[in-house]
Hints:
The complex is a heterodimer.
Chain A (H helix, E strand, L loop, with lengths): L3 H19 L19 E2 L7 E2 L9 E6 L4 H16 L4 E6 L3 H11 L5 E5 L3 H5 L7 E5 L5 E6 L4 H17 L2
Parallel strand pairs in A: 3-4, 4-5
Antiparallel strand pairs in A: 1-2, 3-6, 6-7
Chain B lengths: L1 H13 L13 H13 L16 H15 L4 H12 L14 H49 L3
Helix pairs in contact in B: 2-3, 3-4
Amino acid sequence: MRFLIPLGVFLVMVIFLAIGLSLDPRNIPSPLIGKPTPTFHLAEVSEPSKTLTPESFRGRVILLNVWASWCVSCRQEHPVLLDLAKRRAVPIFGLNYKDQSAAAKDWLSKFGNPYEASGFDQDGRVGIDLGVYGVPETFVIDKKGLIRMKHTGPVTPQALEKEILPLVLRLNQEP
Amino acid sequence: MKTLILLLLALAGSSPLFATEIREFADPDKAARYERLIGELRCLVCQNQSLADSDADLARDLRNEVYEIIETGQSEEEAIRFLTDRYGDFVLYRPPIKPMTLLLWGGPLLILLFAGVIGWRYAAQRKLEAIRTFSEADRDKLERLKKHLDDPH
């Protein structure tokens, strides 16, 4: 019976380590969930004379996708966003984070533009207000302008079908 | 061998001591506050480095923010709030005590208590065993002594 004690301790350690290893250390819970979208006034990437603010999408459930032309994983998620835009499932707005204007425009014309509009956040100040720490990141924003979900890393079809779109559907039901 | 040592020395000499840029503060007190803060705040990109150690782009931007907050005369708490409002308690190497972190802070005490109880029970059992073995070993002796007292011959 005595040998069960170290065995038990070992098993508890295994369980804790297994939990620790299966967690993604890059997935940091955002304190912004349930809070209003931080206000910003940014020039649009495609038409710098226009301004993008949270008012631009007030009253609609939207995705705000943080992207950059230098971001490798953004390329990975880009087809997913293009497909989403084609299906007109949910409007997508972009936050072009710490990029060069010409490079960003090139990127959109080369790979396609899934965004209704993208704000040009050259110095990354809006990114900081949104708690961005690893591009790409995607926020789900409700009709009242509250941030309801944050997805860190490229949007995968699985994340879209299992988490993001069901939430969008639910939020669309809200007044 | 000599070349190897020289090479190693050269490498040691070239390692960057500070990832941070040089900051100008009018007030040395503010400089000290800034240095202390960036040493205690965690970089979100390379999570095992503080803002002071990290070379990441975001760490530099966040150092800028902290610098501006301190230089404009706001308190350390305000700098910390600026970051936790955006990035959460994750940026703090020393998380605050609140319901979410109770197990984190109380855990060591809990384990100590648990270990204490086990240790105490173990010691008590050992003592009991010692008493038992004593009486068994000395029972005969006791009997013989008794007999001897009753009947010295």
